[in-house]
């Protein structure tokens, strides 16, 4: 009788450890997204911060017509230190380029481009898959569709 109790305790402990390990792996996967999507998402968030900081920088300098750089935005306090795009695992923040168009004193257009993930303004169409492995988006969408088909 004592052997059966010890055996059941061992099985219960083993099940608990297994479920904790499974939960740890599921939670560490980053909202169920694959790594290339997470890298691109972080890059796009950085580009949006740069775009906002550039807007304020240009608003306060109505006669400025030169090139805006990320280092300049950080230097003048428009943004904190920005992590570089993790696509290449480098610490450079100069892989972002800022484009703007100004008509007299009015800012018409501000766009930010990453060497790896393309222009922020083109993410809906031609740069949607830039920086992702070939066929990655189609395979990911097929997996998500299959996962949701299970709940129908």
Topology overview:
Layout: H1 2-27, H2 35-59, H3 70-75, E1 96-103, E2 106-114, E3 118-119, H4 136-149
Antiparallel strand pairs: 1-2, 2-3
Poorly predicted runs are none
Distance between the termini: 47 Å
From N to C, what is the helix and strand string? HHHEEEH
Cα-based radius of gyration, to the nearest Å: 24 Å
General form:
elongated
Indicate the percent of residues in helices. Answer: 40-55%
What's the number of domains?
Answer: 2
Write up this protein.
The structure is a single chain. The protein is of the alpha+beta class and 152 residues long. The protein has 2 domains: 1-32; 33-133. The chain has helices at residues 2-27, 35-59, 70-75, 136-149; strands at 96-103, 106-114, 118-119. The longest helix is centred in the N-terminal third of the chain and has 26 residues, at 2-27. The mean pLDDT is 78.
Give a summary of the structure in a few sentences.
This protein is of the alpha+beta class. The protein contains 4 helices and 3 strands; from the N terminus they run αααβββα.
């Amino acid at each position: 009788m004592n052997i059966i109790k010890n055996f059941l305790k061992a099985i219960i402990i083993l099940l608990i450890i297994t479920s904790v390990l499974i939960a740890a792996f599921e939670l560490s996967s980053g909202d169920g997204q694959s790594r290339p999507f997470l890298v691109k998402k972080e890059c796009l968030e950085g580009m949006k911060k740069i775009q906002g900081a550039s807007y304020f920088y240009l608003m306060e300098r109505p006669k400025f017509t030169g090139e805006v750089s990320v280092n300049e935005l950080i230097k003048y306090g428009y943004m904190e230190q920005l992590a570089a795009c993790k696509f290449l695992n480098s610490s450079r923040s100069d892989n972002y380029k800022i484009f703007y168009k100004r008509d007299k004193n009015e800012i018409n257009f501000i766009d930010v481009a990453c060497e790896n993930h393309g222009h922020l303004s083109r993410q809906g169409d031609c740069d949607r898959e830039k920086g992702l492995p070939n066929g990655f988006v189609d395979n990911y969408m097929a997996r998500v569709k299959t996962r949701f088909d299970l709940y129908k």
